[in-house]
Amino acid sequence: MSLEMIPSILPLVATTYKNLFFSSELSEREITFNLRLLRLYLGRDLPSTIHELQPGLRSDLGLDVSRYTRFARALQGIAALPPLQEVAHGMGRVLASLHFGVGIDAMDIELVLGGDGDHGVRCWVVDYNQCERWLPQQPLSQLGTGLAAIGRYASGSLEDGARRLAKRISALEHYYPRPHQALYANFQAGYRAGVTAMIDDYRPKSPTDVWVAEADSIMRAGEAFLETYKIKSQESLEAKARIAARRQKLVVESSQ
Fold it and tell me: Taking the model in full, what pTM does it have?
């Protein structure tokens, strides 16, 4: 789905966002800015106040966990935002669906908050132009026929492909909660629930041994993705901490 097809958030919702997060200086400027959608960044921290708009950005700004919480309180009586735990769980289910239901790696998709076509808000997934196949089309319908990863993910088992997929996503995406965040448990549970539900949907009345074995391999691949995503995210967090410590040390040394 393209961004243009998503209903815009209500003008009052957009105004509430601007009043809450725009600095007074930014609010006073005469700028052309039509706030249509809000991008969800539950895996990163955004500044509490927006002082400048990125060049060329004229419609979509972000919500991290802190902003989302403040925004939900400010919108009481105007519009109801889904609880963050539900959003994180839904992110996990959507990602699992794209991975094992559709068979794409879900790279660079956009997770946004937009209108629902009426007077509310809802979450949308858009922008699939950089996605690649890592499994055949409709992979779960092919269980029992020799399911295997394809493309850049083809080397090794399904678990190996899922680990490579997790490394790419953990390095590039900031939409999904990270392991050090409380919402990660919801995201992880949603991903697992998504994989299990899809397999159950495709389970035949009398599954063959081959079908069962390949269904088990999908479950293991899902766990491999979550395990590797957790490991790589933690490594990234630790690397950032080391860089921050070195910078702080340089500041102290230069002031002496």
Answer: 0.90
